[in-house]
Amino acid sequence: MAKRVYEAWKGNNIFFICGRLIFGPDAKSLLVTLFLIIAPVAVFCVFVARHLRHEFSSYNAGYAILVAPIVFTIHVLVLLLLTSSRDPGIVPRNLHPPEEEFRYDTSASVEVGGRQTPSLQFPRTKEVMVNGLPVRVKYCDTCMLYRPPRCSHCSICNNCVERFDHHCPWVGQCIGLRNYRYFFCFVSSAALLCIYVFAISAFYIKVLMNDHQGTVWRAMKESPASVVLMAYSFISLWFVGGLTGFHLYLISTNQTTYENFRYRSDNRINVYDRGCINNFLEVFCTKMNPSKNDFRAFVTDEQPQRPPMHTPRDTDPEDNNNTGDNRRMKVEDDMDIGGDLLKISQRHNIEDIEADICSRGSDGLNHNLSEAVDSVLGSDRRAPVVQSDSWEIGNEGKYANPKET
Ligand SMILES: [Zn+2]
Ligand SMILES: [Zn+2]
């Protein structure tokens, strides 16, 4: 029987309810987070709010003190679930490298038998225009695609995630395009919950002082739970309150956590900043894009043929003749690679391209390269199988010469 997408998933995610819920590989930490939220609220309800029911002239006000945190905690937990159990904006992997991007790279030629031989490879970066300014996007070896602007590969989940903010170990999920607003609402709501628990616990201490005409110490002895809750919510507030403030700043300037940490010292222009109000509207009021992944869809049997690209990660052990020739230098994810990258762009004439490659290559490489080009051209003629994203970087004339920035 055909497998479903979530059963053949190449990322490190964990799926529940037959692929309806997707978590990061560290989803277990979610249990700790749940405990850290539910336990103090339970203690608060039993040891503090319950005793305050009859402290108000209005009977309902007393019960509201008890019911409000329960309802609000449910609200926080729903936000937590929305953050951690849905697709954060994973860009589906390509089944093979984007064929139209094959370049003939003279700068990355390899020494073989004392002779310089060229290598077929991709440019590591591309330039796309965002709001009229050039933005460099990088090629992801794992996902075999050029990442859309603001997309980054999460090493924990092993996926490229759109508008990648960070991987949050507390929610066990990437924070990206599709769950950032829930994440922010979760963190800010948790901060409000801390303030509420702290304030009402302090109020209960005050009530005990008045009731027994005692000192604050005596009141604190009477309700140690209030003291513990005040300390706990105070410390938690530093964490979630600080995080709320930080993300308010990030939203107002339209940055992600990743961009803020990575480009902080660069002083580069933020091409995404559209003004404070528009930045907030962008995060909270734009329509959420549907997921690009249908985790429950059946995987098609068709396995498109990959061009014979040899990378250090997918070298075919049987093909020892050209592993050295076509070896692509391992390039760190965020390394800047420049250089002249000549392009085999117009594939009208196979002989021209082969002749071009042969004239530059060594004898031993000719056969393999011509095979490579054959395969590229052949599969191109068969059917273009490269997945296209919603953004366009296809204008080769425009972006043919990547600039170093
Ligand atoms: Zn990736
Ligand atoms: Zn992640």
TrEMBL record:
Location in or out of the cell: Endomembrane system
A GO molecular function held by the record: protein-cysteine S-palmitoyltransferase activity
Organism (species): Castilleja foliolosa
Highest taxon of the lineage: Eukaryota
Residues annotated as domain Palmitoyltransferase DHHC: 138-262
Keywords linked to the UniProt accession: Acyltransferase, Lipoprotein, Membrane, Palmitate, Transferase, Transmembrane, Transmembrane helix
Keyword Transcription: no
Keyword Acyltransferase: yes
Family in the record: Belongs to the DHHC palmitoyltransferase family.
A Gene Ontology cellular-component term: endomembrane system
Region named Disordered: 297-332
Reaction it catalyzes: L-cysteinyl-[protein] + hexadecanoyl-CoA = S-hexadecanoyl-L-cysteinyl-[protein] + CoA
Transmembrane feature ranges: 30-49, 61-83, 182-205, 225-251
A Pfam family: DHHC
Gene: PAT08_1
Comment block on domains: The DHHC domain is required for palmitoyltransferase activity.
Enzyme type, top EC level: transferase
Topology class, membrane: Multi-pass membrane protein
Protein name: S-acyltransferase
EC numbers on record: 2.3.1.225
InterPro entries recorded: Palmitoyltrfase_DHHC, PFA4/ZDH16/20/ERF2-like
